[in-house]
Write a structure and sequence with these properties.
This protein has 86 residues and is of the alpha+beta class. The chain contains three helices and three strands. A three-stranded antiparallel β-sheet has the order 1-2-3, with no helix packed on it.
Length: 86
């Protein structure tokens, strides 16, 4: 968590890579670690690193919208930033 706080301090929000998720990767990992512990936080970090990159596809299945990431994992559109749909 200390490393994330240093990252937030030294790299301003406008200089950070845009995340495809609503909650930024660093915020998500910080919150998961705080709520569920270090092991869950590390797992959350690995999932985000693998999936938060360009190359996603938006699909519809039975009136639900999903994003399939470049890593072939599927997430509900509710977890994603609104502006990626445009």
């Amino acid at each position: 968590m200390f490393v994330i706080k240093i990252y937030w301090f030294f790299i301003p929000a406008n200089k950070r890579k845009k995340c495809i998720f609503k909650q930024s990767c660093s915020n998500y990992v910080f919150n998961e670690t705080q709520k569920k512990g270090l092991i869950k936080g590390i797992k959350a970090l690995i999932i985000r690193i693998k999936n938060c990159k360009p190359g996603y596809n938006i699909i519809q299945i039975e009136n639900q919208t999903y994003i399939i990431t470049a890593n072939n994992e599927m997430f509900q559109i509710t977890e994603m930033r609104e502006d990626i749909l445009n």
